[in-house]
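Chapter review. Work through the record for Sterol desaturase/sphingolipid hydroxylase (Fatty acid hydroxylase superfamily) before attempting the end-of-chapter questions.
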Amino acid sequence: MAPFDILYDEIISFLGIGALLEMYRTGDYHALLSLNGILSAVSPVIPFLLLIEVGRALVYKRFRIEDYKIPFLIFVANRFISRFISIAAIAFCIGLFEKYALFKTSFTWYWLIYGYVIWELAHFVYHYLGHKVRLFWCLHSTHHAPQSMNLSVTYAHFFLEAPYADVIRTSICILAGVNPPLLFFIMFIDGTWGAFIHVGENIIKDGRMGFLNKVILTPSHHRVHHARNPLYMDTNFCNLLNIWDKVFGTFQYEKRDLAIEYGISRPMNPNNFWDVYFGEFYALWKDIVKAPGIRNKLLYFVMPPGWSHTGDHKTARVVKQAYLAQQQAQPAQETVQPAAPVA
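Structure tokens for Sterol desaturase/sphingolipid hydroxylase (Fatty acid hydroxylase superfamily):
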């Protein structure tokens, strides 16, 4: 029975319904009057939306197993590898930096606003580094490898990404005075919304969500973030409040005349677990081996993806600049009329 018990526990954990089942078993629903009880009631929303998304795809015959296979395999692998690493990283950062906080906050609505703004800055920093530092991109690229968007993508992460992300985000927030209970509450909100913005078109066809597209970061914005189109690359790093993308010039709306192409720019097999999970590490290793001198080898770790010691850079910035230059040149070419023939 042990294997079935483990499987049952894993399913209950994935669905996030353990606390609700315990309330039903005991008949005591007073927990719903507490913050933890409310959070427990909300936790199953994303997993059940994923099931609805898959169900709708099956009903309308748009289900493709390859869209969900690799994220599922990554989720299973990460459950075995990194179950407690991220929690330990958060606890370590709190214990290390809390005494150095600029000031102390409390669990109130006005400090929640402050804390969320700081959290979004911390998330922006981690996410920006994940795209601009080659070693961190090796950790983050697994999340960008899927070539379609659906809720299963939220589970597709390299097992070390969450600990590295939480070290950066927790350290910044604690040093800025966000107290741990408030931080955990923000993490829950942000994690829930961060999962939701991966929702596929089977649930929300137009991810702009009306007027919200100008107020918060919507699924449309995050679909842009996951695109490999030159215009869309390295944009929309925030998670709920897109203020820091607007401050640092990385905000980009989804254009109605530019279809999103999901995935990463490196040639790869999106249906191969090993290529999705370790492919960027292998590509980094090959670049390091062929690079002359220790300086160039070390630069490959810290320079942006696409940087080359030869000077033939294919970074997101270079690719985007070339695309924009081409777009600007096209209207000029179209306005040039052929000269009239001489009689």
